[in-house]
Amino acid sequence: MSAPRKPNLLESMACGGVAAAFAVNFTHPIELVKTRMQASGGGIGPTVAGVMKNGGVPAFWKGLPFGWGRELSYTSVKLGACE
Hints:
mainly alpha, elongated
C-alpha cells in the first residue's frame, strides 16, 4: 500500500481556513463576551445578562461573518504555510 499523498499549498490553505471558520462558530460568543467585558469593565454575569437582554441568544453570534472573513483570510495563510 502506498503512503498517503501530502496536500499541496492550496489544499493546506483551504483545509486550514475551513477548519478555522468552523471553529469560530464556537469561539465567537466567548470572544464577544470577553471584548464587551474589557470595554465595560463589568463582570461576566452582567455582561452575559446585558447581551441576552438586548438581543437574546442570537446576539452572541452578532458579527460572525466578520470572524469568518478573518479566519478564512488570515488563518488559511498561516496554517497553509506551515506545511
